[in-house]
Design a protein that fits this description.
Length: 183
């Protein structure tokens, strides 16, 4: 657990998702705006999925991080999956990228709408990078890419060392695949 102090002076607690976080995670996902929901989609947002995620945390191949506000609300939810998703792997291979599953992880961040642009995403990413030093990962991909129209997210990724390596269409939208080298 780490305490984060944001640009506004607000504090949050950064930690891994816990089995007991099921109601708070469901509330977080329910509270995302339609726009945020359309841009973050690593899994369905319904109660059954959240319950399954929380109950299976010890056996999960996904590291799930949350930021919790002083009033105990989850205000950010970020995922790091060991390896790649099959559809992501196919796209990267079509672009000529060789992905080593043992040394690659896949990243999916989200921040509650009212906390976006607060510095929370950057602070959480720093915590995650520190945590990932214990793993053999040498590169990080974006989970499902990023929508090309999501300029704020692209700035965030670029600022944090990601590089665009390909473009693709999904659900009628142009998307970018981006990669970050890890040390």
């Amino acid at each position: 657990m780490s305490t984060l102090t944001l640009k506004s002076g607000a504090n949050c607690l950064a930690r891994r998702l816990a089995v007991t976080d099921e109601p708070a995670l469901l509330a977080y996902l329910d509270g995302l705006s339609a726009e945020s929901r359309s841009r973050f989609g690593p899994h369905p947002f319904e109660s059954e999925t959240v319950q399954c995620i929380c109950q299976n945390l010890p056996n999960d191949d996904v590291l799930r991080y949350v930021a919790v506000s002083p009033n105990e609300e989850i205000v950010a939810y970020l995922l790091v999956k060991a390896g790649t998703l099959p559809e992501d792997r196919r796209r990267y291979e079509n672009e000529g990228w060789v992905l080593d599953e043992k040394n690659t992880c896949t990243f999916a961040p989200s921040v509650a709408d009212v906390w976006q642009s607060s510095g929370l995403g950057n602070a959480m990413f720093g915590i995650i990078l520190e945590d990932l030093r214990a793993y053999p990962f040498r590169q990080m991909l974006l989970w499902g890419g990023v929508q090309a129209s999501n300029e704020r997210a692209i700035r965030y990724y670029t600022r944090n060392g990601f590089e665009a390596v390909g473009r693709f269409w999904h659900d009628g939208k142009e998307n970018l695949d981006m990669v970050k080298a890890l040390n």
